[in-house]
Each structure stands twice: as structure tokens, then as C-alpha cells.
Amino acid sequence: MKFEDIILTGDRPTGPLHLGHYVGSLLNRVTLQDQYKQYIMIADLQALTDNADNPQKVRDNVMEVLLDYLSVGIDPKKTTIFVQSMIPEIAELTVLYLNLVTVNRLQRNPTVKAEMQSKSYGETVPAGFLMYPVSQAADITIVKGTIIPVGEDQLPMIEQTNEIVRSFNRIYGKEVFPEAKALVSKVGRLAGLDGKAKMSKSLGNAIYLSDDADTLKKKVMSMYTDPGHLRVEDPGQIEGNMVFEYLDVFDTNKEKVAELKHQYRQGGLGDVKLKMYLFQVLNDLLTPIRLKRAELAKNKDAVMQILLEGTQQVRLVAQKTMDEVRKAMHLNYE
Ligand code: TRP
After folding, report:
1. What superkingdom heads the lineage (predicted)?
2. Which of 26, 254, 269, 280 could staple 263 via S-S, CB 3.0–4.6 A?
């Protein structure tokens, strides 16, 4: 059977979105919404798998993430945005998928493994956390998603989803689900302000799309450069220098960046001056996003309405999928 291409993607609402999300997946989603049917899910249930004691945080960040989506240009007329917990069919499908996955396989999922280590879970990992990749497979397949624009840390989730899809189709004898393909951006992974490999909320090294200009300036001024570059006239290093990494990603004026690199290497370009330049570049990018966000935030009821309407649409699709699943699994009693 030939399946139509459908985009399904999403984020956990554990904090507002940052520049890593922007280059890693948001830009792709803004471009792709013109070419494909696109669904974007706010994964509140997945956020609870390691925040069970903090439901208010998750609740608050559903609105933050929703505002981030709309202010970067995700258009609800083109993209259906929905919230995971209001689609009970996802939970139902997760239960059915759990029989197709071993605990051992989940423990070997590289992303889960890394997260378990960073949270020092060990043997005390919540069962819901360990199995969240199964629930993610249900997120993707409930709308028969085939294209998944995500950051590269999500590749193991797509692999695990496809294993489940293949098992399901093999065992229940029907081509019910298509396999999914991850779509990773050219930038791959954006490093943090401190030079650590990844920008992330938990590492405290992120620039948020919602940061005001002062906060942005402070963060840029704190960025990791060349620790050996002490005086303006000293020659400096470009490699591992976060300011240049960010200029490479965000400055469209490549000639200017090449010129700055040359000057920095030679000596005579101070860190403060260089950072002020990067601040301008980032501030030009973020100002329109910030303005749109402030405008939208004046009417949060209307913004919430967008989420609820998108969710209603997805429920219809999800019910249809579950009808097919029940039939394939001989669970259609009426
Ligand atoms: N795991 C993703 C993250 O942490 C969020 C997510 C949940 C997701 N369900 C998804 C991403 C389905 C893509 C497809 O960012």
C-alpha cells in the first residue's frame, strides 16, 4: 500500500523553546507546512514522565510552547497544532504497542539511556519514563506520520517507532502503518553558550526565543570564546569559539563573518566588540519573533482556542486509525 506523506512532530512542554529548537526543527517545520499536511503535538504526557510531581510547570509551558510556535511563523491555517493528553487514542495505542517491545530494548535506546544517566535514575526509573519511546511511536502512527522534523537526538525514537510499525504490520497481517523518516536540519545540533555540545534548558546554557534584548545581551556577553585571548591585540582562536559558531549558523552575511575571523586570528579584535556584533545579529532575528509573541500573549484565550480546535481535528483522525487497529487486532466486537 502507498501512504501519503504526512508530517508529525512535537516538543515536550518543560520550558520555552530556544535557539537549538529553532535551527534544529522549527525552521524546517515553517518551510514544510506549505508542502505537506503537518501536525505538531505538544507532548504534555511525555513531559510528565519525568515531571510527575510538577504538573503546573507542564501546564504553564504548554502555553509557552504554543506561543513559540505561532510567533516563529507556524500558521494554524496550514499546520494542525494539538495537545497529546486530549487524544485518548494515543494512550490506547501505546498499551497495544507495549506488547511488541521488550524492556531490554527500551533500556538500550540511546536517548533514554543518556537521559536516565543525566537524571541519575538507575533502577528507580519511572516505568512511564522508560517506555516513553513507545508512546512516541503512538504519537507518530496515530496520524500515520511519515516525515518527522526533529533534532538529531530523536533519531533513536524514530528507529524504535519503525521497529514497532514493522512488528505490528507483520503480526496483524495488514499494512496498517507506514514507516517514518526523520528529517534532521543541516545545522544538526547547536552548542550551548558555555561551549557544551548541546544547548539545553537543563544545562542552563540556552537562549530562549522569548528572551528580552537585555537578557539576550547578557547571555551573549557570557559566551565561551578563546580563554587564551586576553588582550585585544592578542591573536585569538576560532575553533571551539562559540561566538564564531553562532555567527556561522545565524549570520547571513558570510563575507562579514570571514572578515571578522581573519581579524580575530590576527589580533586586534576584542571579545566585547565581537560579541556586540553577534548580539545585533541575534537581536535582529529575535525582535520580530518577540513582538509577535507579545501581541499573541495579550489574548491567551484565543491562542488556547487554536490548540483546542487543532486537537478536535486530530481526534477524528485518531478514531479512524483506532478503528483500523481494532479490526486488524480482532478487537472489533461491535
Ligand atoms: N521526544 C520529543 C522531544 O523530547 C518530543 C516528542 C514527543 C516528539 N512525541 C513526538 C517528537 C513525536 C517527534 C514526534 O523533543
Report:
1. Bacteria
2. 269
